[in-house]
Specification:
The complex is a heterodimer of chains A (about 400) and B (about 130). Chain A has about 400 residues and is an alpha+beta fold. Chain A has two domains: about 190 residues, no CATH class; about 180 residues, no CATH class. Chain A contains 14 helices and eleven strands. In chain A, the strands form two sheets. Chain A has a nine-stranded mixed β-sheet. Chain A has a two-stranded antiparallel ribbon with strand order 2-9. In chain A, strand 6 and strand 7 form a beta hairpin. In chain A, helix 2 runs antiparallel to helix 13. Chain A is elongated, with a radius of gyration of 31 Å. With about 130 residues, chain B is an all-alpha fold. Chain B has one domain. The longest helix of chain B has about 35 residues. Chain B is elongated. In chain B, about 45% of the residues are buried. The chains are: A alpha+beta (about 400), B mainly alpha (about 130). At the A-B interface, helix 12 of A face helix 4 of B.
Chain lengths: ~400, ~130
């Protein structure tokens, strides 16, 4: 047998010890990889929400916060609806500094048969929309016809199928790319389709009328501020000019989300740090104990002619092999625990959550395995140094 | 004296979690009107497969001579369990439904771990059999 084969033989001959060391490093890798993927997904979700929101100011009915939080609607796709008279759109456009103003009308579907849950239906005006339209154009380049709908990636309907809403058949023409936000569970249509659906909803007893004769309603108006104007000042002007409505800066809405995200990231980082500190101490103790237990074995190898460097190398190779095995096992376990539960994590955290792309996941996995390898090598290096300083003769006499 | 088989103990624990969990804390969607969705039947199938996996693990604990075959059967049963919710028996369509958000991912984790434990058991028994 060659000396280079010795580390592998040592590991396979002591499966209990090898398994314990591998489990310890696997735990390290699991915490790092799992934590990194979750934090990365939260960051991706926030970036995606920023990109999707696309407006500087959102004007919504004053009652919106009390009925269903607009933030919940954005983040979790909570279905809900509130309305402003459509004349509010003209009032918004009158305000100096308003560059673009696009209305959206919301309607919550009823629960349908077996699996359906309430979904948020959002009516957009393709002629003026600058928020959802660019995103829809990534999947569907044609004009939305009457009774055509585009669905978020988490809505249970395929392209070409009919989606029944308030006993009316709508035709699914496209599915949108994932955003990790409440937009993924929404259904989009043009204003003509929305008006038809609003009428159908009213026939079913779901009222949306603001006044007895008013049928034209909007739920939110997205505003892009013209160049050279201050967003805060335009927002204040809108609050003063549009009655029964509240204008909110989109950034202030996102600040709350960003703060929650920072809190979660900090907690995850703290937990990872604590796990690493504990695991490094345990690894140091484990390798020190292992060296102590194997002093005679190493003394025999020294007497057979193996140099101190060679013995150190053997130790490092053993540590590298166990760390590599543990790292791969930990990454695999973390992947098994994190990826299938994406929706549950997103819904529990109540924050936008967009799973990282496969390339990024691979990169995180490789970085984790490399870090685990490094920690294993460092922990064993100390033990190997102590071993190189000991006298083989003494070790053999002590054991006799 | 009988050798205690660690993989059999792991399979037994996981199988009990599948059988009990699929009907309780990891169960399918509950409809307000008391009606069943397709995921209800997927959960019923999981109960059966979980009980079968538990029985195989119990046999593996007590019948040493048949362990290799019992582990193989457990591994195949784990593959069947993995395919049950969503592939062999439909579950609800929306990602936010309980069966998709909790039941299917939890069952995936449990069956993959069971498959790994059964495969480890197979490898151990095969090596033992080869050594004589």
């Amino acid at each position: 047998m060659k000396l280079s084969q010795l580390p592998l033989k040592n590991l396979t001959r002591r499966p209990g010890r090898t398994a314990a060391l591998m489990l310890l490093t696997a735990f390290l890798a699991l915490s790092v990889f799992g934590g990194s993927v979750v934090v990365d997904a939260l960051r991706g979700g926030l970036a995606s929400l920023e990109a999707r929101l696309g407006a500087d100011i959102i004007v919504m009915p004053a009652e919106a916060e009390s009925k269903v939080s607009f933030k919940n609607l954005l983040l979790q796709g909570t279905a809900g609806a509130y309305y402003l008279d459509a004349s509010a759109l003209e009032r918004v456009r009158e305000v100096e500094g308003v560059g673009q103003a696009a209305p959206q009308t919301f309607l919550a579907s009823l629960k349908a048969d077996c699996c359906a849950v309430k979904v948020q239906i959002i009516g957009i005006d393709p002629a003026t929309d600058f928020t959802v339209k660019p995103w829809i154009e990534q999947s569907y380049r044609r004009e939305l016809q009457d009774m055509d709908v585009v669905v978020g990636c988490r809505v249970n309907a395929d392209v070409g199928e009919d989606l029944r809403i308030y006993d009316l058949n709508t035709h699914v023409v496209a599915r949108l790319a994932e955003t990790g936000t409440g937009f993924d569970t929404a259904v989009y249509c043009n204003m003509a389709t929305m008006n038809t659906l609003l009428k159908a909803a009213e026939d079913k007893g779901v009222t949306h009328r603001i006044t007895s004769d008013g049928e034209e309603v909007v739920s939110a108006i997205y505003v892009k501020v013209a160049e050279g104007y201050d967003v805060g000042k335009v927002c204040n002007a809108l609050n003063g000019h549009v009655r029964k409505a509240t204008a909110v800066k989109a950034k202030s809405m996102l600040t709350g989300v960003a703060d929650s995200l920072t809190g979660v990231s900090r907690t995850v980082a703290l937990l990872i740090g604590a796990v690493w500190a504990l695991a490094i101490v345990i690894l140091l103790i484990a390798y020190a104990m292992m060296i102590n237990e194997r002093r005679r074995e190493f003394a025999v190898l020294r007497l057979l002619g193996a140099s101190r460097w060679r013995l150190g190398g053997l130790m490092l190779k053993e540590a590298a092999l166990t760390s590599l095995g543990g790292g791969v096992l930990g990454v695999a376990l973390a992947a098994l625990l994190v990826f299938p539960f994406t929706t549950l994590i997103e819904s529990s955290l109540g924050l936008p959550y967009l799973a990282p792309a496969p390339g990024r996941v691979l990169l995180l996995a490789l970085a984790t395995i490399l870090a685990t390898l490094l920690i294993g090598a460092l922990a064993s290096a100390w033990a190997a140094y102590r071993l190189s300083r000991s006298d083989p003769g003494n070790a053999l006499r002590e054991g006799a | 004296m009988k050798r205690l088989s660690i993989p059999a103990v792991i399979v037994l624990i996981l199988a009990l979690v599948v059988a009990i969990g699929s009907q309780t804390f990891l169960g399918a969607c509950v409809h307000e009107d008391g009606s069943f969705g397709p995921c209800h039947w997927a959960a019923r199938a999981l109960l059966g497969e979980g009980c079968l996996a538990a029985a195989l693990a119990l046999l593996a604990l007590f019948v040493e001579q048949a362990r290799l075959g019992l582990y193989l059967a457990s591994a195949l049963n784990a593959v069947l369990g993995l395919l049950t919710p969503g592939t062999l028996i439909a579950i609800c369509g929306m990602d936010t439904m309980r069966c998709r958000m909790v039941m299917k991912p939890a069952m995936t984790v449990l069956w993959v771990l069971m498959l790994a434990a059964a495969a480890a058991g197979c490898a151990m028994e095969y090596r033992r059999a080869k050594r004589g």
